[in-house]
Design goal:
single chain; 92 residues; mainly alpha; 5 helices; 72% helix
């Protein structure tokens, strides 16, 4: 089965895939920054929650398209999941 066209993926998915495939030192930090920028475009907390859910779905899709990048994708998924957890400062 041919690999899906890279250009048909959502922009955030393209960025994460490119970083994973490049394999440069610091790529995970850049991916985390890209996730933060993506979520910062959401004007309300509800929109951010929806954007996180969409991003998790897109990352799962990317894992299916490029299973050789599963380790990197898993680290990004862990970061996204950590953003959904209330921080101790907000909980207090």
């Amino acid at each position: 089965m041919p690999e899906k066209d890279f250009t048909m993926q959502p922009a955030i998915q393209q960025v994460i895939r490119a970083l994973a495939e490049d394999g440069r030192a610091g790529a995970i930090g850049i991916a985390e920054h890209a996730v933060d920028a993506y979520l910062a475009g959401s004007p309300t907390e509800g929109d951010r929650t929806l954007s996180r859910d969409i991003l998790v779905r897109d990352l799962a899709s990317l894992r299916g398209i490029a299973p050789h990048l599963a380790g990197f994708i898993g680290r990004v998924e862990t970061y996204v999941a950590s953003l959904a957890q209330p921080s101790l400062s907000r909980a207090a």
